[in-house]
Amino acid sequence: MKHWTKPLVGIMPNAMCQLLTLAGFVFCLLLFGFSALLMPAHAEAEKPTVLGARVAGDDARTRIVLDMDQQVTPTISGLRNPYRLIIDLPEVVFKVPEDAGESGRGLVSDWRFGLFAVGKSRIVLDLTGPVSVDKTFFLPAIDDQPARLVVDLVSASAEDFSTFVEASRPNRSTADKKTDTKTDRLAAAKDSDKPLIVLDPGHGGIDTGATGVAGTLEKAIVLDFAKLLKAKLDESGLYTVHMTREEDTFIPLAKRVQIGHDLEADLFISIHADSVRRGRKYARGATVYTLSDKASDQLAEDLAEIENMSDVIAGVELQEEPTEVTDILLDLARRETRSFSVYFARTLVSELKSAVRLINNPHRSAGFRVLKAHDVPSVLVELGYLSNEHDEKLLISEEWRERMAGAMSEAIHGFFRPRLARQHVTPSQ
């Protein structure tokens, strides 16, 4: 300790020197420590905060009020089919009750809020009919009253709302849409490359997905599980694994499909944990879904309808999809892709049987939009159903998730075993 410093030696006794030096060192540690603790809090405080939100009015005029701690500039737009009003904000902190928005008033039937993308928050209001934005203004804080963002809506004609939608939404140029005429990718040998897998945790951001009996959010459960599965696959060293999202952000369904296509994925696995009924009882057990034009059963049809509403929930403009395949090569690629998808689904079900509980008839099919890539074998896996309290407990169990991830890893190894064998690579057991 006596060698920490030398300038004071000779001016005062060594003991005093050492004491002051130690005191200075401790002071610096405390100073830097407190600074480090304060920085994250300060950064969080810089984000605008929504302190309260409410809707008032009637079928002729309705007012939306957001209590804010600082001024923000909203971007307001509309969507048809169904009628929705979108309020986009810079990323904000919502300090409002979780059940806020479950019921509306006047021209607003209900509304939801959350993170839409990095740096962007969104409020989506479901409307009872066409509206017009009468005025938008911001009231500064006065005395003990917070600042307020106010949006006034009035009833309008369908024609007026359509005009508003067109003016408020940027025009989408078909020239900007990425097209790819390559239809024979699946037949091309890529033995020199690692198989590329895309894991797709469902929902995210403003779209929370299902909510469990005990309040578990689907978007959080599936993201955690996807990260666990990715870690296991990365550990094998056999694959290149990508995720459609790695944090709590919303990804439109078409973008999820496009990610798999653009990466030229060899397998696309969408991961969910929904809430549905089967007859009078809640569904329970893991299920594997593939794409089909006609649903295999009522449960599959109901689930596909729920999942395909994800973009509507988040306030995304729905794009019309072609109903017919006119290119014969594209049609052949789609058929081949579906065959690979079904093969992997059967492989996965076979592995899951010995690891976790499955629903009756665990391989089902329906028209899931997220599975519609024509050149990427794709399946949707329901880990379980949050509407069932027993499934919910399993979904948050580390031991169960380890078993599930292990079984899915083995199924992936089995699916790619012929290709890995050609590359002289053997999956570790």
UniProtKB/TrEMBL annotation:
It comes from the Bacteria. It is an enzyme of class 3 (hydrolase). The keyword Membrane does not apply. GO terms for molecular function: N-acetylmuramoyl-L-alanine amidase activity. CDD domains: MurNAc-LAA. Keywords: Hydrolase. Its EC number is 3.5.1.28. Residues 257-413 form the MurNAc-LAA domain. This is N-acetylmuramoyl-L-alanine amidase. It comes from Roseibium porphyridii.
